[in-house]
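Milestone M4 deliverable, item 7.
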Amino acid sequence: MAITDNTFFAGRDGFVWWFGVVEDRNDPLALGRVRARVYGYHTEDKTKLPTVDLPWAVCVQPANSASAGGIGSSPTGPIEGSWVFGFWRDPDFMQEPMVMGTIPGVTSAAAAPSGDSPHDFSPNQTLPPPDISESLVLGDGTTTEFSTPADATDSTVLVKIDGVVQRATNNPPESENNVEVPPDAYFGDGARSESSEFGRSRFGNQMAGKVNQLAPELRSKFIAGINKFLDDNPDMDCNIAFSYRSNAKQLELYRKYQAGGPLAARPGNSWHNYACAIDLTIYTDGGRIYDDGSKGDSNYTQVARASFASAGLKNDISGDSGHFYPEQFPKGVDSRLKNGTITLKEYLAEKGV
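Output delivered:
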């Protein structure tokens, strides 16, 4: 449900209710909270959203229970497998669920959402194991493994709408889960790009931000290629649509490609996922988009490839004419980078970049 004109004032942004199944009642604060997988809002695939990443839901008690000072009834009714009904206390971001009651039903371990469960759905179930691990074999044979600590304290879920990361405006606790950054600490090293490095371009701020998401060893190359393009084409401008791209974003684009959209590689198979490529959009001097990479090879062959080639960058993937990456790299990502047997820094040194 999309809510518009939010006031971010409790009780004025509508009442958004839900129902779901409890997957965890081992509340570290002993407040009787539960983790429930909400039907229609949370994916059933636990390799994508493990139980430990579900937000804790507070169970509402009746008015004859003080719910404070150790006085009142115990809010420990729901168990793993219980179907519950509730509402979002924060309908704008749906991170604070409240449980109002349980729904009668018969649930067994076989009825749990796909991905199995660390619990046995019995009142006498034991504590969860120290790690919840899942593995997923993709269609290309790649095995992706997930391991999440069971004692995780941050239950914030990354929320995206049309690929845009949503950030709350009512100042929730900061979480690294809300920010997408390149995967390794060394991406923060190296010279940082500034908007002034892009001369006359009116997109200097945006391009500097995108360049700073690239591997440090490659930033100067892309800056040089962009400035050569601007010098060679005084009646045009350009901007970077993508530089580093997370695997989650890559998956979104790949699914759109499968549905008939623009060309996109599988997650982990694009140089964008390793902060080594950009997608370029060219504008006329008046601000109209001249080419966003969708008009075939001819426009880029004439106005962009030669400029970027002087900086050691190439564009040679058919059907992806806005995509530039180092000339030393193959079209496909090296399998050693995919399986983690070599770091990106080591790979760049091996290629002499």
